[in-house]
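Recap slide: MULE transposase domain-containing protein, sequence and predicted structure.
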Amino acid sequence: MADLKRSCSPGPNGVRSVMMFDKTFNLTAAVYKNVTLLNSRTMEYSNFFGAFFLHGNSDFSVFTQFFQHIALEFADSPNTVLGSDEEKAMAFAFPDAGNLTCNRHLRGNCVNYLTDKIGIHMAPK
């Protein structure tokens, strides 16, 4: 958790990472760029996994517990920036954090809503 916190907090050079969360089935993973490890070939920071959360349910109360645990670790880190697919529990646990929405997940959520809830067939492009 120390590398995650260090990379996602503003450093002396002003560089920091966005803490991204992705829920896939019953596993949620935090992903971030470790701003202390620069790849000399690509000149980009290396991607790292942070906290993992294995869960049986994907409801608001379960995720609130997970995100509040992480929020406690970041309590002394101002200006945290998070990324997700509009996870409501994350916004609840980090009310003052910046939030970036993943376009791929947002598009998938829209397609699923239109297909499953509205009944519109979306032809692949």
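The helical segments are 2-8, 60-73, 88-93, 103-118.
Residues 84 and 103 are 9 Å apart (CA to CA).
(End of recap.)
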